[in-house]
Amino acid sequence: MIARRALLAAPALLLAGTAHAAVPLAARPIARLETAWWRARHQAKLAEIARARPDLIWLGDSITQNFERDLPFEWGHFNPVWQRYYAPRRAINLGFMGDATCHLLWRLMNGEIDGIAPKVAVILIGANSLGRLHWSAEDTVAGIEAVVAETKRRLPHTNLLLLSVLPSDRTTWASQTTVSINADLAKRFRAVDRVTYHDVTSLFMRNAAFDRSLFYDPLLTPPEPALHPTADGMARLAAAIEPDITRLIRA
């Protein structure tokens, strides 16, 4: 077991009220440049993009960034999953720990998908709306829609694979809001050109109940609510969406 690194707090701006805003904060581009590692990762990804010709990109938060890790724990061998499914496609990992939809939107608008033409972009974002930010299902869906729209605008020939927000056991409110978000996404993206929506919730359930064994947070010291899939959980996810990716790459 290892000590859990706490997620970096979101900028104070994100915690401001949005009751009277025409566009919720979830759907506005907001940077985290005051955070040194985030700024450095953004610059590193710009350099990687400049020299790459990826067939596939992943856009997301820490759940996606974890693919870069290979930890000395049974639950921590994430990178072999990436090497099996995505490295042969010259994939680029654009997951940033702690990012909400607004942060991903800023990155999209500031170079991270410029100058490339991947065949597929996988989008997995929204989990961080349900933590400290405590954004509603409506606001979170608006943020995800903004991410999809911006990706489509900048990558007009790329097929998008939008994944549902993964289940967790943080709070009853977070679980209920996740269900609402995913139901709304299923309706909104039922027939959108170049966007395939895949609800992967069932992968993380067993006997109709949330399967905590597929998440590593409860194994940390101190334990935390289940939020991040183990390497086995991510392998299940990769296998489940592989038919989608294969089809979309060939489209």
Explain the overall architecture.
This protein is α/β, with parallel strands linked by helices and 251 residues long. The chain is 36% helix and 11% strand. It is built from 7 helices and 7 strands. It has a 5-stranded parallel β-sheet with strand order 2-1-3-4-5, sandwiched between helices. A two-stranded antiparallel ribbon has the order 6-7. Helix 4 (101-108) packs parallel to helix 5. The chain is globular. The termini are far apart.
Task: Name the features.
single chain; about 250 residues; alpha/beta; 5-stranded parallel β-sheet; two-stranded antiparallel ribbon; 7 helices; 7 strands; about 35% helix; about 10% strand; disordered N terminus
Give the arrangement of secondary structure elements.
Layout: H1 36-51, E1 56-60, H2 62-65, H3 79-85, E2 92-95, H4 101-108, E3 120-124, H5 137-154, E4 159-163, H6 172-188, E5 195-198, E6 205-206, E7 209-210, H7 231-250
Parallel strand pairs: 1-2, 1-3, 3-4, 4-5
Antiparallel strand pairs: 6-7
Quickly describe the structure:
It contains seven helices and seven strands. By secondary structure, it is of the alpha/beta class.
